[in-house]
Specification:
Number of helices: 12
Structural class: alpha/beta
Bound molecules: N-(aminocarbonyl)-beta-alanine, zinc ion
Largest sheet: 9 strands, mixed
Number of strands: 21
Strand content: 15-25%
Helix content: 25-40%
Shape: globular
Low-confidence stretches: none
Distance between the termini: 40 Å
Radius of gyration: 21 Å
């Protein structure tokens, strides 16, 4: 049995043409004109008038996240169903054990969370929240089991944050093992001191969040990481870069020879700090770190994507509800759980407000939302493109669809949508995961638990 997709306009990072795709089992085995329907049966999908994209990859999610005294709301079932309906067929979840948890136990915990629930494929970035001889030995094992990237936090003092000698040691180990280190860049001391100052001045609402973490605090974090990357020779990946000042630090470092890739988020491209200033605590829905910025940063981020200065667009999907969890910080913005959900909506928003608005072309969409992540994180060409031998992860995309985003209709397990009422001009009509149809016309029809842990082989291909 196979799957035949006829007459779609295939779009990859660097090509665009009309052809048929034949998928046998989990793999693309033929791309040609006028492929006949198989004699032995199998489904035929007419993709005339539609784009066929490689499955999209979200390089940064928190489906399972114990954080700030609570847990993010999705689990691997709700999260990956939502991902698929939105066209994302692979996620990289952050495995973030607490400082007191052994990395090996953390890795087993995250794998167990995903195992029987994930409907799409997944990998992890392994959080290094403590570095000593014991954790280093466990990290070596985890890398050998197919996790080719670390995650570190230069923020969250007293929680996930590591100090400078741990940062140095982590990068040394990463360099030795050929592992790419992804990093949250904000100066944790400046954040903590500014938070104290603002609270003492009586600023307690959600708007205090972005006041306590201005662009310079993020730029300093990036500069800090760049210096350590330069000293150790380790390649690094900046997660959720939000503003021009931070990007300038990364570009300066690139010119010095630092091997750095950069990720931004759909939230920073379309939302700004005025959302976090909304009255009646509505602003708490828009609290995340680094915070939403002044709108003027958005143009710089779109331009940087178009010109290849930013490599990927993720979501940092970390849903905390408005009913119970965000109010944990009603009287103190430092206690509002950080995160803005977007996993389901990333591609439709990028297509509508990126491609349709003329900010970048279809190839850039595929590049920043799929191919580049596959290359940077060692999944290419299994994922991230449409070619013979690649996994049959395909998004048949209907550019004629018109709709609106809403918490009333989304699949994410969260009681608000940060893009409530936003128009979308296109959506996936069919999504496949390794040859199996997982979505039809906005409905999940796939198999919970079929998602596979992707073991990645050694050697980074970063920048
Ligand atoms: O606000 C955010 N970004 N929440 C998730 C944790 C992180 O820093 O990535
Ligand atoms: Zn972060
Ligand atoms: Zn994150």
């Amino acid at each position: 049995m196979g799957l035949l997709i006829k007459n779609g306009e295939i779009v990859t990072g660097d090509s665009r043409y009309v052809a048929d795709i034949w998928c046998e089992g989990e793999t693309i085995t033929r791309i040609d004109h006028n492929i006949d329907p198989p004699a032995g049966g199998g489904e035929v999908i007419d993709a005339s008038g539609k784009y066929v994209f490689p499955g999209f990859i979200d390089p940064h999610t928190h489906i399972y996240l114990p954080f700030m005294g609570t847990y993010s709301k999705d689990d691997y079932e709700t999260g990956t169903k939502a991902a698929l309906v939105g066209g994302t067929t692979t996620i990289f979840d952050m495995c973030c054990p607490s400082r007191s948890m052994e990395p090996g136990d953390g890795f087993e915990t995250w794998k167990a969370q995903a195992k029987e629930k994930a409907a799409c494929d997944y990998s992890f970035h392994m959080g290094v929240t403590r570095f000593d001889d014991n954790s280093a030995a466990q990290l070596r094992k985890i890398v050998a089991e197919g996790v080719q990237s670390f995650k570190i936090f230069l923020a969250y003092k007293g929680a996930f944050g590591i100090d400078d000698s741990e940062l140095y040691q982590t990068l040394r180990l990463a360099k030795e093992l050929g592992v790419l280190t992804t990093a949250h860049c904000e100066n944790e001391t400046l954040v903590a001191e500014t938070q104290k100052k603002l609270l003492a001045e009586g600023i307690t609402g959600p708007e205090g969040h972005h006041e306590s973490r201005p662009p310079r605090v993020e730029a300093e974090g990036v500069n800090h990481l760049m210096t350590f990357a330069e000293m150790t020779g380790a390649p690094v990946y900046i997660v959720h870069l939000s503003c021009r000042e931070a990007l300038e630090e990364a570009i300066r470092a690139r010119l010095r020879g630092v091997r750095v890739s950069v990720e931004t988020l759909i939230q920073y491209l379309l939302l700004d700090k005025s959302h976090a200033e909304r009255p009646d605590f509505e602003g708490s829905k828009y609290v995340m770190s680094p915070p939403l910025r002044d709108k003027k940063n958005q143009e710089a981020l779109w331009n940087a994507l178009r010109q290849g200065l930013i490599d990927t667009v993720g979501t940092d999907h970390a849903p905390f509800d408005f009913a119970v969890q965000k109010p944990m910080g009603r009287d103190d913005f430092t206690k509002i759980p950080n995160g803005i959900p977007a996993l389901e909506d990333r591609i439709n928003l990028l297509y509508t407000y990126g491609v349709r608005k003329g900010r970048f072309d279809l190839h850039t969409l595929v590049g920043v939302a799929s191919t580049n992540a596959a290359k940077i994180f060692n999944l290419f060409p299994q994922k991230g493109t449409i070619q013979l031998g690649s996994d049959a992860d395909l998004v048949i995309y209907d550019p004629d669809y018109r709709g609106k985003l809403s918490a009333g209709t989304h699949l994410m397990n969260i009681d608000y949508n940060a893009f409530e009422g936003w128009a979308i001009e296109g959506r996936p009509s069919v999504v496949t995961v390794r040859g199996e149809i997982a979505v039809r016309d906005g409905k999940f029809v796939g198999t919970v638990g079929r998602g596979r842990f992707l073991e990645r082989s050694s050697g980074t291909t970063c920048a």
